[in-house]
User: Fold this.
Amino acid sequence: MPVSVPVSVPVPVPGATTASPETLALWEASGNLPPPPPPTGEAPSPLPAAPLPAAPPSPSGPLASRQGPVPRCPPGMVGVPAGPFTRGGSPEAVSVAPGWPGRAHLPRPVEVRDVGAFCIDRYEHPGRPGALPTRYVPYSTAVKACQDLGRRLCRDDEWAKACQGPDGWLWPYGPEWRQGACNADAPAGIGDPRLLRPSGSYPACASPYGAMDMEGNVSEWVETTDPRWAGEAWLAGGTLWTGVYGRGCAARHAHGNGQTSTEDDGFRCCADPAR
Assistant:
């Protein structure tokens, strides 16, 4: 397992909830460096949140009928049933920037996978609506944070199914992109932490199982169980800054052995359902 490295404390978002006590404790435990200088100039504005659609789409493909019962989960988590699902997307579909080299920025390949039932945090860590997502944490810190909660880091396939549903949607809210559904597509200020928003600020950014903000805001560390990607630490999902790693549920990127930590690296936890 990678060794934790020092992380930097991000600048709080003006007018939004500041870092949670859990986030501050993680930074302190990681031996954080002094904060970076605050961004200069006028704070950029994110896209306004789109309203909830009158009739959100629901999975209806051939795999939707092959799902097990929704498991019971602890408070703050949502259940994802066992069963097959379609995951992945093409580089063109997730809008990977042409200049990014190598497989470290390639999306998950399109394929049918099968997972058992599991529970996943409704919100990005620290797991509360209205709290800014935890970020600037390396892979090993995310692993330990989930373990300390009696949970674990989500496996790659679990995260993908929680976001794409059984039908393999490219977006957590459906098969078609909707402007403003999630805190993504930053109009300016790539890398500016002031564009991050508290969890749950975009109510339309809900997956088929009710997990929030799986697109936009921050990417999320996952456990990689596929031997094709062994030895690499991956983050799932598009970030707020879509021109960097692509967009949507199939987007992902690798950070070598997971010892790096930046302003768009976050996580959420998973758990096995109660027996």
Remarks:
- The radius of gyration is 17 Å.
- The chain has one domain: 20-28+71-101+110-275.
- The longest strand covers residues 83-87.
